[in-house]
Structures are given as structure tokens and as C-alpha cells.
């Protein structure tokens, strides 16, 4: 018999749930959420810069009426865009295994009092819908953007440093509550263009209660620390510190800045010996001490 840990690992590996979304359309509507239809997509294109509906879209949906569901071709099958009926807020609905680490962690972080903690920078979760017979759950989230720099929004040094601080602070929050994200990367960071940033994709995340072993076997992630290259992760929290350092470097490259004052901290976070990396709490303290020393004129091209 597999252990519970082995079962959860198996479930988390199968993230692409084979889901027939029309089957759940009525339930989601009862909970106040409308899945996107062909009409919604046409309205979206009509509001675009040129107002043109692409030929590929018309060909793909030539046989569909306007009320037919319209999955976003750019999203995996277990994600679907929609709208909150009461106010038109755009949402993304994610189907996950009910017994998965992801659902457990999201549920933990999205319930009071943690939900209301100012250090919690999770993307707002509007509803958690559990289907026990089918052993799946729907996570309904606000729709944010993966385009971290808006076309019409200037990225000043102050905005950039505030964004990086949020990225650090949220890891502090998670680690303080025994949660390791384990897939921190730019591709798993979203923004609402109102100064808020959030990590997504908690498929790899683990929650430790202090009694379970911290090391993880069969480890895989986007940014792989040197100690995890053999598939074993001896310290998930220090793996997050490594990945966060890579995120900071990639963010600097994205905006085209090299900030010398951050280099020393990033080097410490990238120490190949994970035992010698700072904790995330130390990272935040060091960052807060560094920020006042960074004048605009010290920025260099990346």
C-alpha cells in the first residue's frame, strides 16, 4: 500500500486533469461564476486595438453558437477563464485533485486569519468548490496578468524595489507558517497592475507541521538548486531562497537594471552549500537595510 505521502506525490504529478467543463457549468453558475463563451471571446476581440476577430478563432468555432463554452487555447485543460456574475470581475478557475498538496496549501493560506495577514500576497481566492464524489476541487481566483511590466505603466526604481520586497515578504509569510512554495520563478508571478504581485502554481508546494521530515524525494522544479540536482531536496526552505535569488536576477534583467547593492545579498542566497544560505527572514532584513542605500544614479545597464 502506498503511504499518504506517496499517494499525494502521485496525485500532484497528474496536474492535467481530464475535465469535461460543460458538465460543471451549472454548478459554477450556482456559485456565481460564468465560464467564458464564444460570445465573451468575440466581445474581447471587439474591444481590442483593431477590433478584428482573428480568422483562426472564427474557423475553430464556426460550428459553435455564441453560448457555447470557449476555452482559452493558451491555457492548459484544467484552467478556464470566466466572470463573476455579480460584478463582472474576470476570474480564472483551476481544477485540481481534492487530495493534492496544491489544494491543501491554497485552502490553508486562503482561510482566515491567514487570508487577512498583510504579509500574505497570494492571489485573491474567491471560492473553493469541493466535489467529493469526483475527488476534484475548483479554485476560483481573480484574473491577474503574467505580463509583469504593463505597456503603459512606467517601471520606476521605487516600483521595482517594492515589487521585489513583496516577493520576499510573501516567502517570509509562507515559511513562517511551514509552507515551502518550491516553484518560485518569474513564470509563476502575476500582477494586477495596481502594485500587487502574487505567486501562483502551488503544485509543488509542501506544508510542514514540524513533525514530518523536511527533505523531499523525487524533487523537480523550475529553478533547481545544486543540492537538488540528484532529485533529493534536503531543505525545501533553502531551495526557495535559491529560487528567489534567481527570480531577482531575472527580474533585474527584465527591466534592464543591474543594482550593485543587491548583488552581495543575491550571492549569499545562491551559496552552493544550502546550509550557508541565509534564511528568508534574514533576506528580508538585509533587503530592508539595503534599499535606503540605493540611489537612482547607481543603476547600471544589465
UniProtKB/TrEMBL annotation:
Annotated ranges, domain Protein kinase: 42-302
PROSITE patterns named in the record: PROTEIN_KINASE_DOM
SUPFAM superfamilies in UniProt: Protein kinase-like (PK-like) (SSF56112)
GO molecular function per UniProt: ATP binding; protein kinase activity
Keyword field contains Magnesium: no
Domain of life: Eukaryota
Matches recorded under SMART domains: S_TKc (SM00220)
Keywords: Kinase, Transferase
Record's keyword annotation contains Transferase: yes
Name under which the protein is recorded: Kinase-like domain-containing protein
Organism placement in taxonomy: Eukaryota, Fungi, Dikarya, Basidiomycota, Agaricomycotina
Amino acid at each position: 500500500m502506498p503511504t499518504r505521502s506517496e499517494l499525494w506525490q502521485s496525485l500532484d504529478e497528474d496536474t492535467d486533469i481530464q475535465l469535461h467543463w460543460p458538465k460543471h457549468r451549472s454548478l459554477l453558475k450556482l456559485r456565481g461564476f460564468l465560464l467564458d463563451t464564444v460570445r465573451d471571446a468575440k466581445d474581447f476581440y471587439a474591444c481590442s486595438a483593431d477590433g478584428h476577430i482573428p480568422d483562426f478563432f472564427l474557423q475553430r468555432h464556426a460550428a459553435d453558437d455564441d453560448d457555447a463554452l470557449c476555452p482559452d487555447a493558451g491555457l492548459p485543460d484544467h484552467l478556464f477563464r470566466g466572470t463573476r456574475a455579480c460584478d463582472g470581475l474576470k476570474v480564472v478557475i483551476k481544477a485540481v485533485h481534492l487530495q493534492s498538496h496544491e489544494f491543501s496549501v491554497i485552502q490553508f493560506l486562503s482561510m482566515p486569519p491567514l487570508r487577512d495577514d498583510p504579509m500574505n500576497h497570494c492571489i485573491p481566492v474567491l471560492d473553493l468548490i469541493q466535489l467529493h464524489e469526483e475527488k476534484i476541487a475548483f479554485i476560483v481566483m481573480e484574473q491577474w496578468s503574467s505580463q509583469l511590466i504593463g505597456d503603459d505603466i512606467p517601471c520606476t526604481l521605487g516600483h521595482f524595489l517594492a515589487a521585489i520586497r513583496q516577493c520576499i515578504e510573501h516567502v517570509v509569510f509562507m515559511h513562517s507558517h511551514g509552507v515551502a512554495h518550491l516553484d518560485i520563478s518569474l513564470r509563476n508571478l502575476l500582477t494586477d497592475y495596481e502594485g500587487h504581485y502574487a505567486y501562483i502554481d502551488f503544485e509543488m508546494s509542501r506544508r510542514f507541521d514540524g513533525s514530518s521530515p523536511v527533505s523531499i524525494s523525487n524533487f523537480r522544479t523550475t529553478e533547481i538548486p545544486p543540492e537538488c540536482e540528484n532529485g533529493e531536496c534536503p531543505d525545501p526552505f533553502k531551495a526557495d531562497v535559491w529560487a528567489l535569488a534567481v527570480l531577482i536576477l531575472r527580474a533585474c534583467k527584465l527591466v534592464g537594471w543591474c543594482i550593485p547593492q543587491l548583488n552581495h545579498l543575491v550571492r549569499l542566497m545562491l551559496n552552493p552549500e544550502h546550509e550557508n544560505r541565509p534564511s528568508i527572514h534574514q533576506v528580508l532584513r538585509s533587503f530592508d537595510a539595503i534599499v535606503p542605500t540605493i540611489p537612482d544614479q547607481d543603476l547600471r545597464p544589465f
